[in-house]
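User: Quick one: structure for sequence A, then sequence B.

Assistant: Sequence A:
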Amino acid sequence: MNKINIRSPYYITTKEIPPLYHSLQKCDDGSVGYISEQTVTGIVLVNNARVQDILLDDYIKVGSSATGTSIGIVTDTGNTNCPVPPAPIYYTLTKCSDSSTGYISGQITSAISLAEFDRVTDATNIIYIVTGEATTGTSVGTVTDTGERNCPAPTPIQPQTIQVNCGDTQNVGTDVGVMTYQVNTPETGNFVVNISGSSVPQKFTLKWNGNEATTNYIGSDTYDADLLNAGVPQGEISTANPSNKISNLVTIAKSTSTPTLVELVVDAPLVNDEYSVSFTCPVTPAVVIEQTTQINIWFDSSGSMNTTLQPLLDMAAGNLKACLIQFYNDDSAEYDKYVRVSGNNEWQDERTFNRALQPPTVVGATNVINIIFQDEASPIYYDSFNPDFQRKPAFNTDIITLRNALNNNPTGYITPIFFQVKVGIGAYTEFFDFMKIVQNGQSNGSNNYAIPYNLSDLSDRVSFKYDILQGITYASNPNYYRDLIIQSINDLGFSITCP
């Protein structure tokens, strides 16, 4: 206590004011409650001034306080605010399976020691190589050093052959090697393969009947050096920038029905990123009747079908003419020139397929439809009641010649239509069976009629009709034969409507 003055008998009580220190926040973790050893008068600091303790840890001033945890003598750094820590640095990675980039390790560079081209794996065993350092990227998570360098050399796949169909699409992921796709089609015209993909080059080659069409190596030109190192000749490199594998195609002209096999060979010497191929076969054009189309109605005049001849003649001159004359410019003389029934003993040898292969013979005719009415062909093609229908030389010659005529000419140049006429009940039933075998490639107990002795692969170019009634039915149904002929032509792709 202190007297008010020396003469006064009274005393007053005084309270000592504690010193103030700088209140501090630690920069490393943002924690507070720290004070400097110096008082606010011992060292002058502004708010947010940055100071360091004797351990060189950074703090900033956030106020003043008489109490707190002293960190000892602080030194003014002359800066304000906490220092901004540097961004963490990671290893940049390239994926080995497809050479894609933009990846980084889950660990920072101080947590794992790696050098450029070191090989690492992620938690799912995907393989990468180290290409540098960066602060950003797509993290693959924790990586493991394999102790090896560079990507593993690709293991070429064994050459593979895959059967595909017209209209199919094949999507292929990563592979190295040769893939062959096989398509069987009897159609003629342009066979097209559409190609799509990314950057890694491949060569796409179409093959048919000894002919080839190729893209050479298409893709990104950034891989040209890799192609050369893989042994690809410079002249086969047709890459571009940007990649020309993104959208491309290869086409080959298929001029005949046989051979039916078309092959696409894909050569992939580098680790592939992906590609897709789709197969577009030629489309058989519809049978067309034009003003120059010859129509032969062949009648088997060997004797057993005599009742059918006159109705066919009447039909050709009557209701069939009324139906088809529109295609001959409504000119009766033109119709009579191009459409005729061959009867009156004009065809007696019963060689069905010899009649079917006859080319256009009328001057000016551009194509021909051969319509054949027949009830049997024994003994010229087979022996009656022989359960295996052993082929005879005349059949062998005629069926192979017909096949050649169909395969080596444009679709629609020769169009055969076969009508198996039913003569009585149970009569000549072996001709029905025989024609079914030729149509479908089947035989009774043996393979006597495998290709080229059947027409099963040419079903889009020929027509078979069975159990056709004899001419005695004509009087009761005068449109019977006309409707059979029109329907058979329409079945092959045309659309004829009779008035």
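Sequence B:
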Amino acid sequence: MSTTRDLTHLPAHVLAADIAARRVSPVEVIDAVIAKVKAQEPQLNAFVTTYLDEARLAAEAADKAIRSGHAVGPFHGVPIAVKDLVDMEGRIATGGSKVWAERRATRTATLARKLIAAGMIVIGKTHTVEFAFGGWGTNQHMGTPRNPWDMRTHRVPGGSSSGSAVAVAARLVPWAIGTDTGGSVRLPSGFCGLTGLKTTIGRISCYGVLPLTPTLDTPGPMARSVEDAALLYQLLQGEDPLDRLTVGQPAAAPMAALKRGVRGLRLARIPESERAGVAPAILAAYDQALETLARAGAEIGTIVLPKGFGDYTLLTSQIMQTEAYGLVGQLAEDATAPIDEGVRGRVLAGAKISAAEYFNALRAREALKAEFAAAFAEFDAVLTPTTKMTAIPVADVDQAIVPSHFTRFVNILDLCGLAVPTGISEEGLPTSLQIVCRSYDEDTALRIGWAYQSLTDWHERVPAGF
């Protein structure tokens, strides 16, 4: 088999169909990926480690299995990258920390088992902000991946799933796994022009995923299209006896509703007060996205928020800092440990939060959920920009400022959210829309995102040179 197409540019669902139909072999796909990784990774720094030799062997095995009629799943031979919070037995799992540079996993995460059982080939582990605690994507000791949309100025990739975003955006892999505690799937997806799904707690098992804030942590897919994100989400979701939060949760069927369109849906725009401080390019793309959905038949109204989006940040921080300190506080307390100073400060802030303050924050969270649900009642989704700005230079990052103004409320209120690209700024940087839906209503978020992508081609744009 042979092809003149650039296989690294094909969406995951197209690759899967072509491999299954034997129009292309897994070996050809992996060889194209390996060549791309070897050529681009030195400049991008997307990966902590790669498994290129093993991937080639897996591709050869997949090719033989498929040719003999023994494909193990619908994605047999399709490559994927995994954030370096996800344990794979015997493999190094650093969690983005130099302190854990030699830490070898003694278990395999449930989501990794599902990927492998479906026949996917894991290319490597991607960089993350240390302990996944940061939204810009910077990492002082392990290195900050380069946002591929600007290869002249080192710009932030977004965090904490920084390497996964860069790997997918630069066409090193068709999709990847991220995790999201306050925006860590959606922020890098927004900054890098990707589609990223923040799932509801309990949708996808966290077993074997290094935790930051167990109350808020959620794994999710990062892809180049809603269709690919929906397929990966459908594969990963489901009950896992090793993660009690997944037990008893409703099953999802995103592909069944994906292409139903938005006619008849009521979508909420943000109030005028929330537009303050948002970059003009972001607002222009946001308004255009709303118009596109309105032309497709959606009804657009303005939500009356019980609180501003920024008001949820403090409460979210209290929970994140308290739980992070409980997990890695001892490491952060060691002044000699090579820990990112911005991350160290965020972790150590948890030592100052009392038990009473922490439990009050958890109680307040429940009241906020009910309050927001009342405001949300007449809508099917709330649409916001994903970020206030496009990707800024790494040199301009102020670690005291977080880019998660529009994302944290989704985590604290236990909602789900989808980031989709909406345009390119004059500087050549992606803009992004966030589609927020109720708990366990990822199907609707994906449905809205697919309708938008069926009418636009922003998700098909590629950074120059990739």
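The chain has 14 helices and eleven strands. Residues 7-460 form a domain with the Amidase signature (AS) enzymes fold (CATH 3.90.1300.10).

User: Thanks, that's what I needed.
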